[in-house]
Amino acid sequence: MSQTYEFQCETFFVATISENNPAVRPFGAVMEFEEALYFSTANTKAVYLQFKSNPAIQIIALKSGTREWIRINGNVVEIDDLDMKQKMLDECPSLSKRFDSNKSENFALFKLTEMTSALNINGEFTELT
User: Fold this and answer.
1) Are 100 and 86 a contacting pair, CB within 8 Å?
2) DSSP three-state, residue 85
């Protein structure tokens, strides 16, 4: 398990570009597989179109009740593999409220590539692997 994934929190915020403006929204489900992070959305949402038009994103998360935070940069790539979609549903059961199966036509899975991350704990800033 990577240090980045170990920094788990209930909600993280994903920043994208919408035309020429930043757009930020909360996400709650993440999975790590073979040292890569995965998350999902519906292909009916604006964020899906933003991922497709500009795959560069930034993720920010703050641990509740602390001043510990993480910043992750990378690019997203859509994954169509049904086994990976099932793995995401198994790892994040809350997604079953939105997607009834790995074959749901609006279920989009994304992998974060070219990832860099940095952690701030007690004012100490550390680049992570």
Assistant:
1) no
2) helix
pLDDT of residue 19: 86
User: Domain count of the chain?
Assistant: 1
Rounded to whole angstroms, the Cα distance separating 18 from 22 reads: 6
β strands within the chain, DSSP E: 12-18, 21-27, 31-33, 36-42, 56-62, 69-79, 107-121, 124-128
Task: Compute the distance between CA of residue 117 and CA of residue 12 in angstroms, rounded to an integer.
Answer: 14
Q: CB–CB of 102/82 below 8 Å? A: yes
Please name which of 79, 1, 72, 12 lies closest in space to residue 40, comparing C-alpha atoms: 79
Distance CA 115, CA 106 (A): 26
> pLDDT tens-digit profile of 103-122?
999 999 999 999 999 988 87
Neighbours of 118 (CB within 10 A): 14
**CATH code, domain carrying 121:** 2.30.110.10
pLDDT digits (tens, 9 = 90+) for 69-85: 999 999 999 999 999 99
Query: What range defines the domain where residue 73 resides?
Result: 3-128
